[in-house]
Amino acid sequence: MSAPRMLSATEVKQMLAQGYRIIDIRSADEYRREHITGSENISVAELAQHDLRNQQVIFTCLSGMRTQSSAEQLAASTGAEQALLLTGGLNAWKKSGGAVVKDTSEPLPLMRQVQIVAGALIVLGVVLGYFVHSGFFLLAGFVGAGLMFAGITGFCGMAVLLMKMPWNKNSGHSGTSCSL
Predict the structure, then answer these.
(1) What residues contact 177, with CB distance under 8 A and at least 6 apart?
(2) CA-based angle 64:42:115, to the nearest 5?
(3) Which UniProt keywords apply (predicted)?
(4) What digits encode the pLDDT tens for the residues 23-82?
(5) Which of 10, 28, 81, 114 holds its CA 20 to 30 A away from the CA of 20?
(6) Which DSSP symbol is given to 107?
(7) For the chain, what is the largest distance between any 2 Cα atoms, rounded to a whole number of angstroms?
């Protein structure tokens, strides 16, 4: 397999007009919140369930990093020698003036929620540890240990708790793995 072919938003717009498909490889909750108009959502984990062989497909994600790190798997899913990737992903598409579908009624993607809560708890533990009692530093250490555990095992207890929150009840979040 050769290196992926990186495409600008302008090139992708032209190729879409020629009948290419654009597939967003992010999780379903990220896709529901915001995506390129006309794109399809097939996460990397679901690629094997779809027959994309010999189809004209361009892959995208939020910033382009996930598509680049998965380029070989993406190319293999289409049977192509190289994957076609939107450089800079959704962010670059928006900067170029490309049309997007945005649904702010959808909750933030679960991983962003985990990052916000974990960051807030760590800052809280440090501030309280400094100004109130040094025992609060343990809160920051506990959250850090939880993040390490999630990174090592793929199981995120905080994500499990956040999925139970009312704003996430009907959002379609599934699984408890922590992946960016």
Answers:
(1) 154, 155, 156, 159
(2) 55
(3) Membrane, Transmembrane, Transmembrane helix
(4) 999 988 899 999 999 999 999 989 889 989 989 999 999 999 999 999 999 999 998 889
(5) 28
(6) P
(7) 64
Rounded-to-integer distance, Cα 167 and Cα 178, Å: 19
Q: Which helix (H) or strand (E) holds 101?
A: strand 100-102
Q: Report which of 91, 48, 98 is spatially closest to residue 66, judged by C-alpha positions.
A: 91
Report how far residue 117's alpha carbon sits from residue 176's, in angstroms, rounded to the nearest whole number.
16
Structural element, H or E, at residue 68? helix 65-69
Alpha-carbon gap, residue 67 to 89, rounded angstroms: 8
61 among known catalytic residues:
yes
| Catalytic-role residue among 44, 58, 61, 71 | 61
* Spatial CA neighbour of 179 closest among 66, 47, 60: 66
